[in-house]
Structures are given as structure tokens and as C-alpha cells.
Amino acid sequence: MAELARDTLREMQLRMLRIRAFDERASKMVKRGHIPGTVHTSIGQEAQVVGATMALGTGDYMSGNHRSHGHPIGKGSPLGPLMAELVGKATGVCKGKGGSLHLADFAVGSLGESGIVGSSIPIANGAALSSKVLNNGKVALAFFGDGAANQGVLYESMNMAGVWDLPMIFLCENNQYALSTPAHTVTSGIISERAAGFGMPGIRVEEGQDVLAVYDAVSAAVARARAGDGPTLVEVITYRYNEHSEGLKLGTDYRNADEREAWLKKDPIVLFRQYLASQGFSEEELDGLQATALAEVDAAVAFSDASPYPDLSVAFDDLYTDKESVA
Amino acid sequence: MTVMSYLSAIGAAQREAMDADDRVIIIGEDVEANVYGTTGGGKSRSIEGDFLQRYGKNRIRNTPISEEGIVGAAAGAAMTGLRPIVDLSYSSFLYMAMDQFVNQVAKNRYMFGGQASMPVVFRSAMFYGLNTGAHHSDRPYPMFMNVPGLKIIAPATPADAKGLLRSAVDSDDPVLSFEACLLWSTKEDVDEDEFWVPLGVARTAREGTDVTVVAISSSVPEAVAAAEELAKEGVSVEVIDPRTLVPLDRNAILRSVAKTGRLVVAEPAHRTCGAAAEISALVAEEIFDSLRAPIIRVTAPDMQIPFSPSLEKQMYPTKASIAAAIRRVVDLPALEPVAAAV
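^ inputs. structure came back:
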């Protein structure tokens, strides 16, 4: 791997800390009723998210899924409008009409998170088609989970991306559970090996809690895509710490407590902090990053608190580009 | 003006749109070989007019048979700077992509607070009336009318097929075009220069004062034929073709019925929750006092389409079934029992 600049390393840790702090706060806010509905946190998956999003350029595209906050944060979206969106405020990044499941920030190439498993994969594929036809050098990445790896539209999209050599990365966030269902009980074979059937490289990142391992794998895929060599499937093995969604209490213990303990020992933020310390970052500097992330989340909540709820008329905007078409 | 068929008018509109804007691309099954006759010079592939030769493989793309992937990719491409025309061939194939139509194409602009625009056209042909059996014979536009966020056109003439398609391509919202295979060979004089038929504006196919018939797609020529027959008996029938179903030209329909006081609605789709049901409800809600007779719908029954020619031909509105409905609303005696759709 290429030697990364200190600023890049620092930014990786900061973005992982942002995601952790944002989602820990969001979890509390759901439980206190300050966020309506529920949220799906990325706590535990920060390395996988940040390693992938930072391998992309700001102008590159991505689509996401129901575990939805980490992607735009990782891509560099400001926290205030994201938090306001979770609460349903007028200043939300989608004006309060999307909510947690439908965050999108086109300013940073975030083409939208999706509540339907697998549904946003072809959206990124289409963005890659745009890049190819317009020859603008952009690449696109679709985030999807191990659950979505069993949706047919993934394979329709991989086939099209392969046959058209699209600048596309299929990024499988394999956190090993589709809600309560262990992936290996519903998934035949190895997900990354399915790439061979479409004539594209399939990469499995076993050390998915290592942000640099993810970054290197996705950077190689981005380089291939940008060089015109077509799509790549990258499967990252990771783990979510929290329940599928916040507030969900299942009667069955579908996850082994020992398993969770083992994963907690490989916490991506702790691991990367140790690495940064070994690279000469001071304890003071590393504490400072944590403080910065917490302060940004405090500011995001304050921004949301100070924001009004949307005017009722907003419910009737944005269906079409012209108001006249609304019946 | 030049004589064009419905199908060649669509081809002309696609050629004009491709010439006008480099962001317009055509993707779909078999578009490179011009199998359906809208990506070539004329009825068949010709060297001069062939789209693949004219625009190249970057902008004319055969797709795999993967409707969900195609529709989603077209949506993603539209959100990032292209203006795709997607040829989905048969309308029944749209069901394969229902998640993408309903959850992505229709919702993205709204869910994302207006950040997305979705300039994409999805064309498909309704192959009914051609003895292709139940899988190819659907007229599914009403179920898409039930999805806010989509615009829907159903041209009934060559000129409208050309002009509406240009407006659809220029629209920054997703447009579904439902074309009737039965009308493909219809010919009329069409302006060979560029023109646009605006979305949401109905056409008065025939003026009249006693009865309004609102007719959709292939029911339009049947309604006009019925009107001409009734004229011989002194009944003056106005035929309105909405052309665009979403947005619907409500005012044109209401104005006509307010004038005539009688309404027959004819369409080839199923009866329950069809466009005819919506138009009937609109008139009943808005101008009930103007009505001098009950509204009559002439539709396909809530039945699947049988294969045998002897069975299928009774399933859709015809000149005879529309004429019978007109006779009922003006209190003329029925000529003969009409077995077909009521």
C-alpha cells in the first residue's frame, strides 16, 4: 500500500469517531422518544464504512441501505442536517421527508439510502453508466449487506456492470446477520466468490475491522474502475454491536455472547488508535479527535433542536419538478 | 407534413431527441437490431437511419433481459446526468421491475427532499388484441396511475406519439409511455419538423354536444367510429382523448361533460380501479349536477385475457360496445344485445 499522509490517517479516525458518536447519540434519542420511529446503527462497522467511503473521491457516487447513517458521514456529509433529518426537522438533509432510512446528500455524491434490501444497488450501477457514457472519470459504489447478497437485482446489476465494464464497486458489508438470520444459514458458498461468475475480481476482506485493510482493498477496486477495467466485488467481514434496529428486543438469543465479546476486542476505533499511536500520534492528539467528534455531534443535536418542524405544505412539495402535475 | 405510422412517429421522436441532446441514450432489449422498429430508419433496419450506426454503441445499448436491473440503472443514470429512454418492449415486463418503479423511480425525488431529478422515459407496448395469451396482453397503466411520482402517457395517434414522446424526454420527471400495439400501423399526416405535445393536455378528437366519450389508447378510434355512426341518428358525440393519464387534464373532461351532461368512458384496461373509474369519480364529485344520465364505463372485464381469437375479441371496448353505451345514456333503444364488456 501507498504511504498515507498523516492528515488522511487522522481523518479516517475522525470519521469513524463521528459515526460512533452520532449513532450512540441517535440510539439514545430513539429510546427517549426524541427520534421518531427507529434507526439502524453502524456501531462496530465503522472501519468497513470509512475504509470504503474514503477510498472514493468527493465527486464519486454511492448508494446505501437501511444501516444508513455511516455512509453519508463517511463520505463527508455535515452532521447537523443529518441529525435534523433523523428528528424530522425542516433543516434535515431531505427536508424531513426521508428520515433515517432515506438519508441522501447529493452534494457529497450520496445518492440515497434505501429501506428496501438490495433496491439501491442498480441506482449506483446507473450512476456508473452515466460516468461511462459521459466519460467524466467518476466511479460509483453500492453498499449492501449479506442479506441483500441474496437479492436477484444484485446479480442483474453485476452482469450489466461486467458486460459494460462500468466503473463500479459492489461493496458487501457482511455483518453476518440479516436481522436474526445467520448469513451462513441462508447463503450458499462465499459471497465474494460469486464475482467469478461475472468475470470480475472478488475480494474478501477478512480483517474488516481494520480500516486500512478495507481502504486498500477498495482503493484497488476504485483504481481498476477509474482505469476503465470494470467492476469489482468487495466483501468485508464485520460485525454490528447493537441490535438490528434500536429498541428491538427479540426473545431469542440468535447471537452467541462469546462471539460478541470476541468482536468487541477487535473494535475498529481502538485498533486504529493503537496504530496511530504507533505512528507517532500523541495521546493528546488522539483524545482531541474523540473530543472533536463528540462536540460535532453535540452541535448537530443543538442544530436540530433549534430547527423548526417543516411547514405542513412541505408534504406536498417535490413529488414532481412542477407543482401542476399533482392531482 | 408527411405520412407516418404510429411506430415510425415514435422512431422519429427518438431520433429527434437523440439529435437534440447528447445526454439522451436508448437502452433496452434488442434496440441495436431495431427489432421493434423504433430505432431504425423506417419500418425495418436501414443503413441511413439505423440508430446504432448513427449514434454508436455508447448511446444505443442492448441490455440483458434484466428488467429490475435495467429500470434501476436507468433511474441512477437519470439522477446523475443522463436522460435515458428505456425500451421495455412488452408492458407486462414492467412487473419484473416493480420495486424499482415504485420504490426508486417514483419516490427518490420526494424522499430526498427534491435533490434528485429523474429525467427518464420508460416505453412499453401493450400487446393486447393480438392473440398472444395472458402474459403479453396486459394494459397495466392504471396500476401505475396509483403510484404518485410517475407521469403516464398513452398516445392514440401517430402525431401524439411523436409529440408526447418529445415532451416526455424533455421532462425532468419519470414518464411511462404505454403504446398500443394495435395502433402501430395507424397512419396520418405528421409534421416532420420538431414539435412537442405538452403533458397533461387532452385532445378533442371529435366535437359534439349530446354525449362526452372519454376514450383511452386504442379505444379512441373505436369511440370516434361509434360517434360517426351515432351522428347518422342525430346524436352529437364529443370524443376526448386525455393522452396523458398523469397528470390528467381534469378541466378538459369537466368542461366537456358540463356541456353535454352525459359521460361514457372507454378504455381497454380492467374495470376495477381503472382510469375509467377515476374519470367517472372525478365527474361525479365535481359536476354531479350537470349529469343528465348515469355515467357508463366501457372497459375490459375483470378477467384474464384468453388466447383463442374467438374468445379474445370480445374483451375490449369496440365501436359496437361504445355505441351501445352512448345509446343508453341518450335513451335510444338498443340495436342488438352487446355481449362484450359493459
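The domain at 2-190 of chain B is CATH 3.40.50.970 (Rossmann fold). Confidence is low (pLDDT under 50) at residues 43-47 of chain B.
thumbs up if we can close this ticket
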